[in-house]
Amino acid sequence: MIASRPRTRWAWLGAAFALCALLPALAQAPLPGTRTIATKHSFEALVARVEQAVDKHGMAVVAHASASSGAASRGIKIPGNAVIMVFRNDYAVRMLQASVPAGIEAPLRIHVTETPGGRATLTYREPSAVFAPYASPALDAVAKELDVVFRNIVRDAAGG
C-alpha cells in the first residue's frame, strides 16, 4: 500500500496537468443552448433585419452595443460586431416573479458578427438554456415561450 501512494500522487498530478491543458479549449466552447446561424447578409443588413424581426415578433430592442462602431469612432477598423439586447416588460415581470436572481440575464442577447467573406453570422442562446440554472418551473415556462419567440426572430432575420 505504501508503494502505491507515490503512483497515486503522480496519477492525480498528471490528471491535474491534463485538465489544465484542456481548460483553454473548454473556455472557448460555446455555452449550452448556443446557436450560430451563418447568413448570406452583410453585417449592416443583418443588424437591420434582426431589429425588424424583433419588432415584428412583439419584442423590444432594449439596447444595442457595437464594438466595431466604438472602434471606428477611434479610427480603428475591425470586422462588424454588435450585440442586440432584446426583451419585453411583461416577460420581465413574469421572470422576476419566478426568480429575482434571474434578472441578471435580461435582456437576452443576439450577437451579429461579420465574417471574412463579407457575410454575417447571428449567435444567440436559447432562453431555456439561459434560465435553466435557476431551476424554477415558472421561469422555465417563460423561457419556453421565449424560445419560440427567439427562434422566430432568428428565422426571419437570417432568412431571405
CATH class of the largest domain: Alpha Beta
Bulk shape: globular
**Count of structural domains:** 2
Mean pLDDT: 89
- Say which CATH homologous superfamily of the largest domain is assigned: TT1751-like domain
What is the gyration radius calculated from CA atoms? 21 Å
The number of distinct helices, counting runs of at least 4 residues, comes to: 6
CATH fold-type name of the largest domain: TATA-Binding Protein
The percentage helix is: 40-55%
Ends distance: 68 Å
What order do the SSEs take from the amino end to the carboxyl end, as H and E? HEHEHEHEEHH
The unreliable regions are: 11-20
Structure summary, number of beta strands: 5
CATH architecture of the largest domain: 2-Layer Sandwich
Q: Strand order within the widest sheet?
A: 1-5-4-3-2
Strand content: 15-25%
What does the largest sheet look like?
5 strands, antiparallel
Computed structural class? alpha+beta
